[in-house]
């Protein structure tokens, strides 16, 4: 019994050793496989992160920082920027001319209130001025009867001229409201020319000033000053009468003007800038004012 028992125990031990060895071997294999899989995933993740980091670095490095660094080979395509158009600015200094100063002072009196634009052919009741104007105690021009103080370009520019002339007469000590000894009929003819009552070649503010010796024509734009009066025509066959505030220049070249008048685009009395139909360097036009159809008049009441 003892011998059999010992033999049996030896068999059991041998089996136990074999089983144990197999178990240990399996654990080692499984652990190795798990570790290899984990390492593979971590390595791939790190690799991907490094590759992503390399991509970001290469793109950032390719942007020119203007510091003299050499660019990487990765190309960055930047959007083409649209050209920035810088609006020209007026350059003229304030006019020292005595009468022009009165004109500029007059236009400042219209800063308060509303002065809408209105153009019609109801000449019997409305003549484009903001208030009734009298000359030699007679009604000369009529404001709109609805009391809105509406105006149009020839009306408001004449009104400014007329009020500046009255101020001039007072400063010079002249009695009454007569201008340059002109009769009512003569002065009314002056108005018709200012209002362009006929072909502009025969009727404009410059012709009115010259005919009645109240001013002169300027043909050199560089001689013009703020407070001068201008009549111009556009390519679309429209015209305008304004008070010059300033020329607009590009690289020293006059390309337009800033002015004060009454116009629909500003809902009445106001400042505006327009440009001549001269060409830019790219072949396009600055604006529509015909530069050869500009009449500049300066009032010289002496």
Overview of the structural elements:
Keywords: Membrane, Transmembrane, Transmembrane helix. The chain crosses the membrane at residues 12-33. This is Peptidase C39-like domain-containing protein. This protein is of the alpha+beta class and 302 residues long. The protein has 2 domains: 1-78; 98-299, no CATH class. Helix content is 36%, strand content 20%. The chain is built from 5 helices and 8 strands. A hairpin with a 4-residue loop joins strand 6 and strand 7 (268-275). Helix 2 (98-108) packs across helix 3. The relative contact order is 0.11.
* Cα separation of the termini: 158 Å
> Globular, elongated, flat, extended or rod-shaped: what is the shape?
globular
Question: Within the largest sheet, what's the order of strands?
Answer: 3-8-4-5-6-7
Oligomer: single chain
- Roughly how much helix do the residues carry, as a percent range? 25-40%
Number of domains: 2
Structural class: alpha+beta
What's the Cα radius of gyration?
45 Å
Low-pLDDT runs = 1-86
In this structure, how is the largest beta sheet organized? 6 strands, antiparallel
């Amino acid at each position: 019994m003892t011998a059999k028992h010992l033999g049996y125990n030896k068999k059991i031990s041998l089996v136990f050793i074999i089983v144990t060895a197999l178990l240990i071997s399996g654990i080692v294999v499984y652990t190795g496989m798990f570790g290899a899989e984990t390492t593979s995933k971590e390595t791939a993740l790190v690799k991907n992160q490094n590759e992503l980091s390399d991509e970001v670095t290469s793109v950032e490095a390719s942007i020119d920082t203007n510091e003299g660094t050499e660019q990487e080979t990765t190309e960055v395509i930047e959007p083409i920027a649209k050209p920035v158009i810088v609006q020209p600015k007026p350059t003229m200094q304030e006019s020292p001319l005595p009468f022009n100063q009165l004109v500029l002072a007059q236009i400042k009196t219209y800063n308060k209130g509303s002065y809408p634009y209105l153009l019609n052919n109801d000449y019997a009741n409305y003549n484009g001025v903001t208030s009734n104007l009298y000359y030699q105690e007679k009604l000369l021009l009529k404001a709109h009867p609805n009391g809105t103080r509406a105006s149009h370009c020839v009306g408001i520019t004449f009104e400014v001229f007329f009020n500046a002339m009255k101020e001039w007469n007072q400063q010079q000590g002249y009695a009454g409201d007569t201008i340059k000894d002109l009769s009512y009929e003569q002065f009314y003819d002056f108005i018709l020319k200012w209002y362009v009552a006929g072909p502009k070649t025969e009727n404009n503010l410059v012709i009115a000033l010259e005919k009645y010796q109240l001013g002169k024509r300027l043909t050199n734009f560089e001689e013009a000053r703020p407070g001068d009066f201008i009549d111009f025509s556009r390519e679309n066959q429209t015209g305008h009468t304004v008070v010059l505030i300033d020329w607009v220049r590009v690289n020293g070249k006059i390309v337009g003007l800033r002015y004060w008048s009454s116009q629909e685009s500003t809902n009445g009395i106001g400042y505006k800038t327009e440009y001549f139909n001269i060409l830019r360097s790219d072949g396009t036009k600055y604006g529509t004012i015909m530069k050869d159809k500009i009449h500049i008049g300066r009032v010289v009441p002496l």
